[in-house]
Structures are given as structure tokens and as C-alpha cells.
Amino acid sequence: MERDKKIIKISIFGILVNLVLVIFKSIVGLLANSIAIILDAVNNLSDALSSIITIIGTKLSGKRPDKKHPYGYGRVEYFSSIIIAVIVLVAGFTSLKESFEKILNPTTADYSIFSLVVVAIAVFVKYFFGNYVKKEGEKLNSGSLIASGTDAVSDSFLSLSTFIAAMISLIWHVSLEGYLGLVISIIIIRSAIEILKDTVNDMIGVRADVELTRQIKEKILSNKEVQGVYDLILHNYGPNNLIGTVHIQVDDEKTAKELHRLTRKMTLDIYKELGIIMTIGIYASNDRGEYGKIQKYVRIISKDYPNIIQIHGFYVDEDINTISFDVIFNFDERQIEKIVSEMAEKLKKKFPGYEYNIIIDTDFSD
Q1: How many helices and strands (H and E) does the chain possess?
Q2: Domain 210-361 belongs to what topology?
Q3: Is the pTM of this model over 0.85?
């Protein structure tokens, strides 16, 4: 709730800043007969609309979970980011079109000292405001604020190009508005595409943040009973709503009571420190005596296959003479089933009398 309040507060501030700029730029643009300044004002109006969309998205994403949406509405923020990116993209292509027309049909604007002062102030306001919003967005993990901040910084360069064109026009009576507008339009379009790409990647699902996975693994391994941490998966239901699963390896002589106490402690610690709801599974370990030799041999033959990243979850079930373990392959490997079959044959030849269950695993985290 505190995060949502901060996002809404920054967005309201953004609306006010952009509306003030719209008013002053519109007046100056009309008085100076400058299409560049008028377009700049329209761009600021789209920024105000983006901030309104951010507020709506934040309000919707903060709704309590219900029966139909048990994981909440956090992913609504991604849709807000996409809408903002589309608005920026439209603004970029509109500026591109107007810039081409300005190049083909140049007109002389009538700038004054007052108009130059207004545009110069707008450059500084948008640049520093944009950086502030972007940094706050990164702190709050808000894609919408990051998108708005990135757009505002791009707008400051658009205003700067307008200022430079005005200075050149005022001093040398040469119109460069169209050419400068062309360059800045391309920059705006590029930033919109980057925002779209990042947001779509988040919606599709990307590899978990390396630093976050490191923190989780270190937190779990700080418990001396844990021999290893594997299969960490984080499901993203919004920027600040992560649900995860992980396997830990422990000695097979641990009792259910001991395991309950251990896993309960870890889930509470991770939730308190990182805000992640974690489900913890168990890999039992019994690599003593002959079983240790078998496990060592598994690791030796795995080195024959460069695209095997890791072997884990090794366990010998004495009651049914079954040996199981997980194999993680590089995503580049195209003959996984063949390799697994070869490994099973080598093991059966070296250590007969066992059934081998080799489970193909996925490289979800570093």
C-alpha cells in the first residue's frame, strides 16, 4: 500500500508539471508560429495522460485478491506500461511526420527572448523531473514510472532541439526545426520500443534476477542442515508480488518434525526479508559408502557431455533398488533424450541391479 501511494503521488506531481508546460508552450508556440513548440506541448499533454494511466493501473493492480484472481491484480501494471509505450510511440511517429513536412515545407518562426526562456526552462524541468521519476520507478520497481521517466528525459532532448533550432533561426534566420525534430523523433521511437520490449519480456517471463536468486540461496544455505539449494523458480504476479518454489538437499535421516521446523523457519525468513512466498521441497541425500561411488561415477560420465550444467537430487531408494537424480542441460542441447539414454546404459553396465530414473530439469536460475 505504501508503494502504491508513492507511485500515485509521483504521478499526480507529473500531471501538474506537464499541464503547466502544456499551457506555457502552447502560448509560446502560437505566438511564435512555431510548429516545433506546439508539437512539444502536445507531447507534454501525452505525458500527463501517461501519468493518469499510471494512477489507474496502480489503483487496479492494488485490488485485493479474489476467488477469480487468487494471485491479485499486480500484472495490470504491465498493461499500463504498454499503454504508455504506445502513447510515446504514437507521439514519436507524429513528430517524425511533422518533421518531414517541416523539411519539405520550411516556414520561418518568429521567436522572442520570452519564447526562448520558456523553452530553456522546459528543457531543465523535463530532464531533472524525468530522471527523478525514473530513479523512483527503479526504487519502487514500477515499470510505469520507469517508462514515464524515460519518456520525460527523451522529451527534454526534444525541447533542447527546439531551443537550438530557435536560437539558430533567431541569429542566422535558418530553419532547422525539421532536421532536429527528425533526429529526436527517432530517439523517442527507440525509447518506446525499448519500453515495450522490456514490458513484454516481463509478461512472457524472464530469468529471475541474479542478485535476488543469490540472496535467496544464501539465506537458505545459512541453515547448517541444508546441503544444497536447487530448482529455484520465481513466479511473477506483478512487480512486487513474487511466489517461488525451491528444493533443498538434506540428510535422509531427518525426521518429519525436523524438516517441518527447518522449512517453516526458512519460508518465514524469506518472506520477512524479501517479501517472497516460498514453497520448499526436499531432496533426501544418502551418498554414503557404495552410493557415494555411484554418485561420483554419475558426475564423471556427465563430463562427457559439455551441455550438462548440473547434476543434483541424487538418491538411492534401497527398498526398491532405484537410483534417481536430476540433470540440467544447457538450452542449446538438442539431443537430450539420447544423452539421458546413454547415461542410463553406462550406469547399468557399471552398477547393475538398479533401476535408474534420470529426470530432465530446466535451468531456471543462475
Answers
A1: 10, 6
A2: Alpha-Beta Plaits (3.30.70)
A3: no
